[in-house]
Design brief:
mainly alpha, about 80% helix
Length: about 120
């Protein structure tokens, strides 16, 4: 990562451009940048306005927004993203893990533990 690279991407994405938002979210995933508020701003905008344009990247952004919304307690976004991911990938182990995260986010720890234990079987 170059000095100032992240800040530059944030500034470009703040201008509202599709490409800049996608690049920012990709950078955040690659470099493990933890800023759930930024994910919600830019990922939410992409999901709201550019689903078709995202192509297969939609599902990665959807997961990223799900994780951010679960952490921030944004139930509508969390539920929307998880619902779409479950529908698209009904037998995915990865989606099963997201269900466990969902259960944790609603304080259903017994169910979360059960979901997460099924993944390790």
């Amino acid at each position: 990562m170059e000095p100032g690279e992240y800040d530059g991407l944030v500034a470009r994405a703040s201008g509202g451009g599709y490409t800049a938002a996608v690049e920012l979210l990709q950078f955040m995933r690659t470099h493990k940048v933890h800023q759930p508020e930024l994910v919600m701003v830019h990922g939410g905008a992409l999901i709201s306005s550019h689903q078709r344009k995202l192509g297969s990247e939609l599902w990665t952004v959807m997961e990223q927004v799900f994780l951010a919304s679960a952490e921030l307690g944004l139930g509508e976004w969390r539920d929307y993203c998880l619902g779409k991911l479950v529908k698209k990938f009904p037998t995915s182990v990865r989606v099963e893990r997201l269900k466990g995260i969902y259960q944790e986010s609603i304080d259903d720890y017994a169910e979360a533990k059960k979901d997460l234990q099924q993944d390790s079987d």
